[in-house]
Amino acid sequence: MTGNGFPGLCPRIRRVSLQSPGIILSLLLLGAISAPAQSPADSWPLFRGSVSLRGVSGTSLPAPLELRWSYQAEDSIESSAAITGGTVFVGSMDGALHAIDLATGKVEWKYKTAGPVQESSPGVADGVVYIGDLGATLHAVDIETGKARWTFTAGDEIRSSPVPAGGRVYFGSYDQHLYCLSASDGSLVWKYETDGPVHGTPAVENDTVYISGCDERLRAISATTGKQVFGFPLGAYAGASTAVRNGHAYLGTFGNEVLGIDLGRRVAAWVYRHPTRSFPFYSSAALTEQYVVLGGRDKMVHCLRRDNGKAVWTFMTGARVESSPLIAGNRVFVGSNDGKLYELDLATGKKNGEFVAGAALSASPAAGRGALVIGSQDGVLYCFGN
């Protein structure tokens, strides 16, 4: 595995990259700062689909899904893709940002980054793709030409995904800072120092940036000033990103808990623990009006009631679930390190279908224009549609 590992306070978050010599293609079934409730039907412009990181797509996916094409990168794909304007953008451990035609799977251009791209996922806004790498560089790349508009160097590797919002770009670094840059030229607007590496992706809502990480706190930072509004103790460090909806935040921790946090009252509205299986949560949650859905290192996908954190259902896979679920209508799509992409019924957790990729799927699915894409740790990007 390429890269410097996880320094600082989060050494145990390290992800093992599983390489597989073969690919089994077996499809059984298958604004400003305030964000919309779900991503537009024709796009998935950044990690989790919207700046509040809710993981919900407005696109209509065919049933069953069929494999449309696959694209081979030169190394593992653990970055989650973005979809906009008929193009898929995805980073790879081969040290490149790839732009791929959504309809055909043909490469449009490749942009060489300063280091391998692991979990940092592209964020797209106003004709520019933003992505971070393990070489500590954030890149702003022109969508049409694949050329750099500007770069910014942080003090350590970037695994956090950039979030463009309101003419700014927010991201975290392992140098223990949350950064806010001007989207137009990459100049520093402000940076906020935390007490540990900033692993997760910031959520942005109502002029506030929410970040969780290795210092075991959820922090609310003013998007205008870069000053902390408040900090909330999580009781353990977090590898997952925080999802925000209707004044509440939701995330799992390495303390084997999922928290629903009332941001107005600054208290935990509820805490979920599985009654018998005690494992960390690395997957980021998907949110609907009723449900919170996320994966666990207990090999399960968990669906909780959003109002009280009570379990609705769990679904067992063959390995840890580090992929973050995507919800489209009444369907849940999520990858597992067992090498399968699962489609589950949102209300019941019943398996509708699965696709066997043959290598771990730790990246998260993205959906737009009637298609769903996900990358695997043997470097294959899969596109499903009809």
Query: What's the structural domain tally?
Result: 1
Broad structural category = mainly beta
Largest sheet: 6 strands, mixed
- Taking all residues together, what is the mean pLDDT? 91
Going by CATH, the architecture would be: 7 Propeller
Explain this structure to me?
The structure is a single chain. The chain has one domain: YVTN repeat-like/Quinoprotein amine dehydrogenase (Methylamine Dehydrogenase, Chain H). It is 0% helix and 42% strand. It contains no helices and 34 strands. A six-stranded mixed beta sheet has the order 1-31-30-29-28-2, with no helix packed on it. Strands 3-34-33-32 form a four-stranded antiparallel beta sheet, with no helix packed on it. Strand 10 and strand 11 form a beta hairpin. The chain is globular, with a radius of gyration of 18 Å. The two termini are 34 Å apart.
Please supply descriptive tags for the structure shown above:
mainly beta; 386 residues; disordered N terminus
Short description:
Helix content is 0%, strand content 42%.
What is the secondary structure topology, with strand pairs?
Blueprint: E1 26-27, E2 56-57, E3 66-72, E4 82-84, E5 87-92, E6 96-101, E7 107-112, E8 123-125, E9 128-132, E10 137-142, E11 148-153, E12 163-165, E13 168-172, E14 177-182, E15 188-193, E16 203-205, E17 208-212, E18 217-222, E19 228-233, E20 243-245, E21 248-252, E22 258-262, E23 267-272, E24 286-287, E25 291-295, E26 300-305, E27 311-316, E28 326-328, E29 331-335, E30 340-345, E31 351-356, E32 366-368, E33 371-375, E34 380-385
Parallel strand pairs: 2-28
Antiparallel strand pairs: 1-31, 3-34, 4-5, 5-6, 6-7, 8-9, 9-10, 10-11, 12-13, 13-14, 14-15, 16-17, 17-18, 18-19, 20-21, 21-22, 22-23, 24-25, 25-26, 26-27, 28-29, 29-30, 30-31, 32-33, 33-34
